[in-house]
Amino acid sequence: MESTGNPNPEAVTQAASPPDGRVEGRSLPRVIAVANQKGGVGKTTTTINTASAIASMGLRTLIIDLDPQANASSGLGLDVRSLQATLLDVLIDDLPLADCVQPTDTPELFVAPSSLRLADAEMTLYSMLSRETRLRQAVNGILGEYDYIFIDCPPSLGLLTLNGLCAAREVMIPIQCEYFALEGVGQLLENILKIRRSGLNPELEVSTIVCVMYDARTRLADDVVREIRNHFGGIVLRTVVPRSVRLSEAPQYGQSIHMFDPRSRGAVAYRDVAQEVHDGAATTAR
Fold first, then answer.
1. Tell me: domain 11-17+27-278, CATH 3.40.50.300, correct?
2. How many CA atoms lie within 13 A of 11 on its CB side?
3. pLDDT by residue (tens digit) across 46-60?
4. Residue 122: which of 97, 150, 87, 173 has the closest Cα?
């Protein structure tokens, strides 16, 4: 399969290599940024349903909705227009992150909701001190309260995404099983390396690639998965998430796929994704 924008193999190797030499057994709490600069690649769907499945294991889990579209917040049943406090207040006014966290219908799953005005706030951030690490400072204040924190980043490489990458320890990249799947991923990897080398977040690593929107009826989907595995090797999950109408419908009801249709192919796939992600965690005492 021929495609453009393929990542530099050296960048792939470096971004996927833990800076301290760790291979597996990542300790809890784990802070994972879900990022891909392309829109419409299943990033928020992956965030919601992976986090929900991990919470269903009895692990206290927080989703930080850093995307101004607020889809992770509304997709879990929150009315973002009526909230008293959001990430906007955290990033701009130094509100403690704990003060904006909302519960969801899934036990052990919580959301720090976005605001539709967060895109405008990005301009304000540019004039603030420690503008790249404001989210990390907020996350550090609640680290001991959660086993997993997933940061749903915007589909761009702006200052909001930079805050997400500086706050995280790991990066999960959903890649759709379609033509030009790897387009733009190379730029994301280069930015991850720049963040490490600059000292903003020297521990950051790409720990997980998940193939999504897989259509078993097409040969193209198999070709794309093969190319992704060739580029990224062992960090690509064994589980491939199928294209599913039920996955698209669930957010309309403010539910994860596990509540909306727990027996669907999408629900089964995301439970397997969550298990693979958690299999890389070391045992911790809380």
1. yes
2. 16
3. 999 999 999 999 999
4. 87
